[in-house]
Amino acid sequence: MLYSRHRPCGPARVVRAMAAVAIVVAALAAPSHAHASFLSPEAEDALANFIALAVLFLVPIVLIVLFWLVHILPEKIAHQRHHPQFEAIRTLCLLSLVFGGLLWPLAWIWAYSKPVMHKIAYGTDRVSHDEPDTPASAGDDTARGLHERLARLEARHVPAAELNILRADLEALEARFPEETR
């Protein structure tokens, strides 16, 4: 053995470990200047007041807005899916707001369901909510708009080719909706 390392065995090792623990405990137990906060007491009070006001005023407003946004989701879904009973689903969503959300699951299910007898009764299970209800009123509005446009173009002395195209469109509309345009 050229080199031998001497290790303390048994009791000496335990004594060293106990001494290290005693030093650590003494360091932790020694009194020192403790700081509870990095802020001054006045700043702590101001921060506490701000947090209290935010909790009292902002949190309820945010919760009410979130509650409302969640409760109009079935209405938006029914509108996007062109559900024929969209108005009834909208009404159920409003009632759900009044009754604290109890009817909301029904509105959600209804928005995703297909109407059972609507296709048999009306020939389709989808309704476009963006189009006018009566096609005659749409034709009447278009014909009136074309008459006005034709009068403006005639007043500006537009070439006859463009006026002939407009007159042809106007005659086609008047033939399509004879009683409403005259």
Write the layout of secondary structure elements.
Elements: H1 11-29, H2 41-71, H3 73-80, H4 86-98, H5 104-112, H6 118-122, H7 135-155, H8 160-176, H9 178-181
Helix pairs in contact: 3-4, 3-5, 4-5, 7-8
Task: Walk me through what this model shows.
- The chain is mostly helical.
- Among the domains are: 50-122, no CATH class; 135-181.
- Helix content is 70%, strand content 0%.
- The chain has nine helices and no strands.
- Helix 3 runs antiparallel to helix 4, helix 3 (73-80) runs parallel beside helix 5 and helix 4 (86-98) runs antiparallel to helix 5.
- The longest helix is centred in the N-terminal third of the chain and has 31 residues, at 41-71.
- It starts with 10 loop residues before the first helix and ends with a helix.
- The model is unreliable at 132-136 (pLDDT under 50).
